[in-house]
Design goal:
Structural class: mainly alpha
Shape: elongated
Largest sheet: none
Number of helices: 8
Order of helices and strands: HHHHHHHH
Distance between the termini: 21 Å
Length: 177
């Protein structure tokens, strides 16, 4: 296959994956804002409240107890101290800003190859952060594993993009020397 055609195909693949990563960051950020509403939907859709309110003879799943506990905690906090949710708003903002930064990787993956490295480091740091802070805050291990899964799912396209951008960089060097 022609080297230019192969490079163009690689560039398109990188851009598609970066766009997917950006969309994931934006959606993740956007879901940090209406937490109480989303949690109410989740409790309703899963039937968690009905499971928790059922007679004690029926074993209550741990996940249902956790969702309902978080729901009550969030409702009470928002009713008494709504400014606490401002932290979630800033969490969303952080996701949006990081998404904007990755536009640089979409535009020129070779020149901005460092963004893939940055993203992979950030993904790797999610794991100890989730385990340490989650333990301190009393978050169940299974929930921390869910949080860590976002890092793993984010790292996969970033690792591919890093490798592909390095290949593009090598091809560019061959043709310019």
């Amino acid at each position: 296959m022609n080297a230019d055609l192969e490079s163009e195909k690689t560039l398109r693949r990188i851009r598609w994956l970066v766009a997917l990563f950006i969309v994931g960051l934006v959606l993740s950020g956007a879901t940090a804002i209406p937490l109480e509403t989303e949690l109410n939907w989740l409790v309703e859709m899963t039937g968690a409240r009905a499971l928790v309110d059922a007679p004690p003879s029926t074993g209550v799943p741990v996940w249902a107890e956790w969702l309902c506990r978080v729901q009550v905690g969030l409702q009470e906090t928002n009713a008494k101290y709504p400014f606490i949710s401002y932290g979630g708003d800033w969490l969303a903002f952080g996701h949006f800003v990081i998404a904007v930064v990755f536009i640089g990787a979409w535009r020129d993956p070779v020149r901005n190859i460092w963004l893939f490295e940055f993203g992979l480091i950030a993904c790797a740091l999610v794991i100890p952060y989730a385990f340490i802070c989650g333990a301190v805050r009393g978050i169940p291990i299974w929930w921390r594993l869910i949080d860590c899964s976002f890092a793993v799912f984010g790292a996969v396209p970033l690792a591919y993009c890093l490798r592909a951008a390095r290949q593009l960089e090598q091809r560019q060097r061959l043709f310019t020397s």
